[in-house]
Amino acid sequence: MMADILIIGAGISGSVLAERYANSGKKVLILEKRDHIAGNCYDYIDDNGILVSKYGAHLFHTNFEDVWEYVNRFSNWYPWEHKVLAKVDGQLVNIPININTVNSIFNLNIQNEEEMKQWLEENRVEIDNPSNGEEAVISKVGTVLYEKMFRHYTKKQWDKYPEELDASVLNRIPVRTNTDDRYFSDKYQALPLGGYTQLFENLLNHPNIEVRLNTDYFDVKETIGGFEQIFYTGPIDRFFSFKHSVEHQLEYRSINFVSETVDKEFFQENSVVNYPGMEVNFTRIVEYKHFGNQKSDKTTIVKEYTTDEGEPYYPVLNDKNRAIYQKYKLEAEKHPQIHFVGRLANYKYFNMDEAFKNALDLFDTLENKIQTRHEL
Ligand code: UDP
């Protein structure tokens, strides 16, 4: 098939752009390096009959009305308010930190928001403009909770202590002055009935879209051409042959997912249990059965070990990496017909809904621009 649009990567950004262009009458070719679509959202039914996510739990949450409306066109969704427990001093406590967390860890009896605010005021460290992850946390909850819940978890997750990371990384986790134990506060919180892979199948199910799996763009780029536009969703440094990574690599973190079958109905009381201490090397254990209240005699648990090796999942946000990324960004701006989209190409810690939003907005911007050009 001769295509008008080339898309590299069949994750959220690539699949949304493919759907948008296909529906506007363009022919779209997607090249996907892996043997499946859906990027890191990919899920499947495992040997225990449980829907599991290959690349870690994906919890959809958004305040964007247009994104919510859009994703509902391609899947039915069931409400799912994600909760996380953390194992601290041998007991399971709520994270994000709320009244119950403080009561459990410090054996207190805080009763209301007023008292919780007072506790935080007495324990937090006064810092005007927190400039890194450590300052961000201790300025909100103080040093004891920082040590118990954030310092070592972050070291395991990033191989850096919070002071070596942007404040924004740790600020993803709010602090609550009530007993709300939901991980997110967004208006819409849901999971796709039938899983994410099915959602992506529906996005890509269009006669104008051809998906080529097991195809690395860099292996075939000399043999293809003639596209109106190209959308690249892979790591930005790889696109430019790592030319600005001579002294320092642009860093990414990957995860080694170690799956186990446990021969009992449930292994843990919640879908996700975080291990913020040093007693184990993994960051968390996900028990997939909890999502959608799935039934099976056995249960699948997955321990997550973050590593430098393997496919890049997370950009590592700090000044050093941002400086390297800026060089690539300037390089990218010299190629206006190539659009760099998504987490890896923008080196940003996008949530799923932000990835949807950016792809939808990019399409609208480009198409409006094109219309304006026609009008002229
Ligand atoms: N974090 C932590 N302890 C926790 C949970 C999170 O220290 O129990 C920190 C850690 O640095 C983590 C960041 O907060 O990388 C953001 O957490 P989030 O759950 O958003 O990470 P993700 O689910 O994207 O891996």
TrEMBL record:
UniProt domain UDP-galactopyranose mutase C-terminal: residue ranges: 148-349
Domain of life of the source: Bacteria
InterPro entries: UDP-GALP_mutase, UDP-GalPyranose_mutase_C
Broad enzyme group: isomerase
Record's keyword terms, sorted: FAD, Flavoprotein, Isomerase
Cofactor or coenzyme needed: FAD
Enzyme Commission identifier(s): 5.4.99.9
GO molecular function term, any single one: UDP-galactopyranose mutase activity
Keyword Flavoprotein recorded: yes
Family: Belongs to the UDP-galactopyranose/dTDP-fucopyranose mutase family.
Entry protein name: UDP-galactopyranose mutase
Species in which this protein is naturally found: Aequorivita aurantiaca
Lineage of the species this protein comes from: Bacteria, Pseudomonadati, Bacteroidota, Flavobacteriia, Flavobacteriales
